Amino acid sequence: METNAITAIYAEFSGLPTPVSAHLTEEQVGDQRVYTVNSEWSQNNLVGGSRLRYMQQWTLLAEQRNDCKNLQTVLPPGPCAPLQAELLSSFSPVRGLRAVVRETTGSHQILEIWDSHGLRKTLDLTALNKHGRVYNDAQFGCLSWSGCESRLLYVAESNQSSSPDLPGKSPCGKSLQDRSVYREDWGEGLTSKSLPVLCVVELETGNVSVLRGVPSHISPGQALWAPGSHVVVFVGWSHEPFRLGLKFCSNRRSALFLLGLDGHCECLSEADVSVSSPRLSPDGTTLVYLQGHVFGPHNQCVSLHQYDLHSKKTSILMDVVNRTNAGECAGIYESLPSSCWSADSQRVVFSSACRNRKDLFVVDRRTKTVAFLSDNLSEFYGSWKLLAIQKDLMVVYCSSPNTPPTLRVGFLPPVGCYVDWQTLHQPGLTFDLRWTVLDVTPTTEEDNTEYSGLDFGAVLVKPRDHFHGAKIPLVVFIHGGPHSQFPAEWNTTTAGLVKLGFAVLMVNYRGSTGFGQDSILSLIGRIGTQDVKDVQRAVTTALQRDATLDPKRLAVIGGSHGGFLSCHLVGQYPDLYRACAARNPVINAATLLGTSDIVDWRYSSVGLMYSYDQIPTAEALAIMLERSPITHAAQIQAPVLLMLGAKDRRVSPHQGLELYRALKSRDSPVRLLWFPEDGHSLARVDTQADCFLNTALWLQQHL
Predict the structure, then answer these.
(1) How far apart are CA 392 and CA 373, in angstroms?
(2) Integer Cα distance of 427 and 439 in angstroms
(3) How many CB atoms lie within 10 A of CB 480?
(4) Predicted local distance difference test score (pLDDT) of residue 469
């Protein structure tokens, strides 16, 4: 447990690469089909304090027998090729051209087009001054080739200022503007995003234009070309009367639009809903997209809709799942991959949370039935994530708490058949950790009368070998959200702590994704009570089922809502927990109300309705305070480690400071780490390493 040893373990674990995207091409060579898989990977470089990206390529040989395609040979992969300063990239569908938006050392953004002979064309988008910075985030960003491969579509910040002209002219004759007028943005993780515009570049001429016709109250994103390359489809988020935080929030009012290059705009989806992830079928006839509710839970189970471009009719392909049944899909809780269609345009493949796991599914448009695609190794891999499917070849990555991400491929089989999965990339390391999934049932007293009969779960990870008769200290790890999940997947923090000798219990309390919409709704109005009791029930269950765990050495860690629950637990159960480590925790929901970018969730979480013109009342603030950990601060006995990002727009760092001062005034042991350049996720490479090191030392000291 020396500092150097902890740092070495974290460097080893966090340095393992993770695939982030894949692209496939197919060609016929003699009697064989040759597939090329280009996969993009992310890897932390702890020494350099940076996050690296690189590409690796595989060549696969396959044959087709009757209706089935079979992989015959996987050739050795090519070398890893680093990707320098790439913001966006996209392969064209026919000729395999590669478009790249890259940032230069002078902060210029350039567009490059590459073909088999090298660099074909370069455009300096910044110098053209048609728009502001190009968006490369997951919420708005896109880089879409037209069907004719002569145009590219992307999203950028408008260079049109929203502030009014002031009377008078500058010495150079330009209009003066009020530089101090407040400009809204889209919140945490999107602070540089305010007024996005759709941009088209004509590759032959190099001309860049901003599309006209987007309604003035709409911010466009997630755009793609419709058939014919003269119309684009996009998701538009309403930014009136003001913007709310968008990242991790699938409940923002939005719609699906069709926009012609002539400026004619048409809304395709219904009103007062949230939509995302439009994906066009290979035959160009059908759009699928996700649809959910506005406000309420910030993340939710969504429905999968299909829109027929010819008949202009919409239907539900897969509805919201309210209750989960064993062996069935639990619904959709995350965005669709950019390539998700079968070659015949009849099936859609997706991955999503399913109880304590993440699994792979296919839905058939003809029968509207949903089936699993993971194989008999599902007990070995707790998590399956679809990267892409093209020409029916699926590229996924799998992992489990003791197995880092593994790249696998397999052909989508005929209905009723199994996938023959093959591994492309085996992780360089495997770890001798033991993990198990726990199903947890609340007691009669803890049952939710409005949503009765719900259960939840947890994933227990511990060292495989320990001294005979010795008890293992238990760290309770709580996810944030609260509407998110700890699937049985590779987690650097969990693996590192187990390597250091701790057992880790990752709890999916009621309200987590993967357990149905009823579970999510059951937490509304019950934060600080139901979720706290669920975590404690999971701890009790784990201690009862595993005699190797030490009930006298318990600690709790978590971030955001996980930090909220961690601080609740050490306050409500002061005699049970001996240490706490919380990252950007919610401490006082009442004082957070005016500083968070998701003010609507502050009302919804405690069971109150929200509207844009909401004015706080004494009653509402009293409810928020009552549900907050700060009310139990005087009872906290366990030493508390706080880790705060100074640029957090979701949970102000003053939340953690509020608890820090309350504990300091009572001479309670507390330590605070302040990260001036970090936001809510504390995602910088050096920050993550610092947090792990300090958390491990804190647990070692107090357990």
Answers:
(1) 13
(2) 29
(3) 23
(4) 72
676 CB neighbour count, 10 Å cutoff = 9
Report the candidate in 116, 508, 100, 498 with the shortest Cα–Cα distance to residue 324. 508
The vertex-216 CA angle with 212 and 221, nearest 5°, equals: 70
Beta strand residue intervals within 370-501, DSSP E: 370-372, 383-390, 393-400, 403-411, 422-425, 433-440, 456-463, 472-478
Distance CA 595, CA 591 (A): 8
- C-alpha–C-alpha distance, residues 130 and 159, integer Å: 7
CA distance 24 to 452: 46
Chain-centre distance for alpha carbon 288: 20
Cβ(681)–Cβ(675) under 8 Å? no
Task: Tell me the backbone φ, ψ of residue 258, rounded to 5 degrees.
Answer: -120, 125
Which backbone phi and psi does 175 adopt, to 5 degrees?
A: -65, 140
Is residue 702 flagged as an active site residue?
no
HSE-CB for 420 with a 13 A CA cutoff: 9
User: Exactly one of 276, 560, 596, 628 is catalytic; which is it?
Assistant: 560
Report yes or no: 477 and 584 within 8 Å, Cβ to Cβ.
no
Residue tagged active-site, from 392, 600, 648, 678: 648
**SS3 for 272?**
coil
Tokens of 129: 């001054």
Told to judge if 680 belongs to the known catalytic residues of this protein, a careful annotator would answer yes
- Does 560 qualify as catalytic in the annotation? yes
Positions of the chain with pLDDT lower than 70, given as ranges:
161-178, 376-379, 467-468
**DSSP-derived 3-state class of residue 6:** helix
How far CA 282 is from CA of 84, 254, 340, 389, in Å, comes to: 32, 25, 10, 11
Going through 562-647 in order, the beta strands assigned E by DSSP cover 577-583, 640-645
According to the model, what pLDDT value does residue 248 have?
95
From 680, 681, 690, 702, active-site residue: 680
Question: Rounded to an integer, what is the distance from CA 123 to the centroid of its chain?
Answer: 32
Would you tell me how many other CB atoms lie within 10 Å of the CB of residue 491? 22
Which class for 82: exposed (0-12), middle (13-18), buried (19 or more C-beta within 10 A)?
exposed
Burial class (CB in 10 A: 0-12, 13-18, 19+), 160: exposed
pLDDT at residue number 65: 78
